[in-house]
Amino acid sequence: MSTKTTEPAEVRNTKQRRAVTGALQRLEDFISTQDLHRLLKDQGESVSLATTYRILQSMAELGQVDVLRSADGEAIYRRCEAQHHHHHLVCRSCGAAVEIEAPDVETWAEATARRYGYADVDHTVEISGICEQCRAAERAAGSADPAR
User: Is residue 88 a known part of a binding site?
Assistant: First the structure.
């Protein structure tokens, strides 16, 4: 993930970009482009789906949003909390995500790149599992089921 935090001069601060940025700042969870577009429309914002895609892509390139892939492969976005390189631990059940530091992964990635003669390497690591809240809900549902 990029560590850029400022927008270059060629990125215009349009009404549509402000609407997308504002909506993302109010959300805690990751959201797809289509769902974000629907949310903006429901809020009375006039932002086309194509413009929503372009703005999110630009924000991803600038390191202003985190991008993950949902279980069906769709890109989902969330405003970055950390302004530096980080990774994610994502719940496969509810989609909750935690930003994590992984110095051992960084060391491994750099060493692997050097071993194969690569430079200027970037990487993304996403670890998925089931969060404690979802596991607790599953346990509670299981204990409430008399057939078990």
Answer: no
